[in-house]
């Protein structure tokens, strides 16, 4: 039996990460490439114009429209990074 959220909202979309050599090269949600919004809590701690989450913690929203590989997201241990 489906949980209450699935009954109200429908099935959850799937997230697919394409990984090559430990780095995220593609991000897909429900078969589409989404625009990404990243909440950077490290920058938010010192930003004068930071937004705040539900708990009041400051963050800076980064709207990312470039290819995901340009983010440099890695799922590999640091000793494998080429830099």
Short structural description:
This protein is mainly beta. The chain is built from two helices and five strands, in the order αβββαββ.
Describe the structure.
- The structure is a single chain.
- The protein is mainly beta.
- It has one domain (13-80).
- Helix content is 12%, strand content 33%.
- It has two helices and five strands; from the N terminus they run H-E-E-E-H-E-E.
- The protein has helices at 4-9, 41-44; strands spanning 15-20, 23-29, 36-40, 51-52, 58-64.
- The strands form two sheets. The protein has a three-stranded antiparallel sheet with strand order 3-5-4. Strands 1-2 form a two-stranded antiparallel ribbon.
- The chain is flat, with a radius of gyration of 17 Å.
- The termini are far apart.
- The model has no long low-confidence stretch (mean pLDDT 83).
Key phrases:
83 residues, mainly beta, three-stranded antiparallel sheet, two-stranded antiparallel ribbon, 2 helices
